[in-house]
């Protein structure tokens, strides 16, 4: 069975003045992608556990929480308690990544390990058996609305081979610059979880965009 195509809208591009309404309007997606930034690991500062709690109250969808923070060990329990279902931690900035991922699983949450565009897939080779998902960044993290970095495609393909060779069912999520016109390429390369911020919240009808992204993803997967 091929892995399901999942659409994970990033609320970074939502209108925070009416966040509950915005989250309600993406109810046909599979996850809600929540970008947490600490002003150190990335040059931007965003969402604390209190806001995650508010998002949790506004949706039944699983929360896909992307921690762009240093020393994530100090924060994973707080985000788990706030309602995160999947917790992503960067291999850069978290030197004891095996322990950090273990902590997420002990909290009963799905562990996701994240790679910046410049980080080779070998950096996570020995934790592939410890995660449900690998998040491949296709922009340098910190901001929405950036351009997709093309070298992500061979990188996803290499990672998909690495996962298959080990007989694992790890999902590959891709994040940054994902729009209707590059869904085909990222899914063909081997990704199945598609994050999109401006590609969804920048359009007039979120539900229609989500449906079209899903249709293109499923067509590309075959
Ligand atoms: C970037 C974030 C992304 C961002 C994607 O640091 O991790 O999730 O919201 O935004 P778009 O889809 O607009 O590139
Ligand atoms: Zn993200």
What share of the residues lie within helices?
Answer: 25-40%
Biggest sheet features? 8 strands, parallel
H-E order? EHEHEHEHEEHEHEHH
Tell me the number of strands: 8
Structural class: alpha/beta
Rg is 16 Å
Count of helical segments? 8
Question: What is the averaged pLDDT score?
Answer: 98
Low-confidence stretches: none
Strand order of the largest sheet: 1-8-7-6-5-4-3-2
Instruction: Name the shape in a single word.
Output: globular
Task: State the end-to-end distance.
Answer: 11 Å
Q: Can you list the ligands bound to this structure?
A: D-xylitol-5-phosphate, zinc ion
* DSSP strand content: 15-25%
Structure characterization notes:
With 222 residues, the chain is of the alpha/beta class. Helix content is 33%, strand content 18%. The protein has eight helices and eight strands. An eight-stranded parallel β-sheet has the order 1-8-7-6-5-4-3-2. Helix 6 links the parallel strand 7 (171-175) and strand 8. It is globular and about 40 Å long. The termini are close together. Residues 10, 12-13, 33, 35, 66, 139, 141-146, 175-178, 195-199 line the site of D-xylitol-5-phosphate.
How would you briefly describe this protein structure?
The protein is of the alpha/beta class and about 220 residues long. Helix content is about 35%, strand content about 20%. It has eight helices and eight strands.
Topology:
Layout: E1 6-9, H1 19-24, E2 32-37, H2 49-58, E3 63-68, H3 76-82, E4 86-90, H4 97-106, E5 110-115, E6 133-137, H5 152-165, E7 171-175, H6 183-189, E8 193-196, H7 198-201, H8 206-221
Parallel strand pairs: 1-8, 2-3, 3-4, 4-5, 5-6, 6-7, 7-8
Helix pairs in contact: 2-3, 5-6, 6-8
D-xylitol-5-phosphate is lined by residues 10, 12-13, 33, 35, 66, 139, 141-146, 175-178, 195-199.
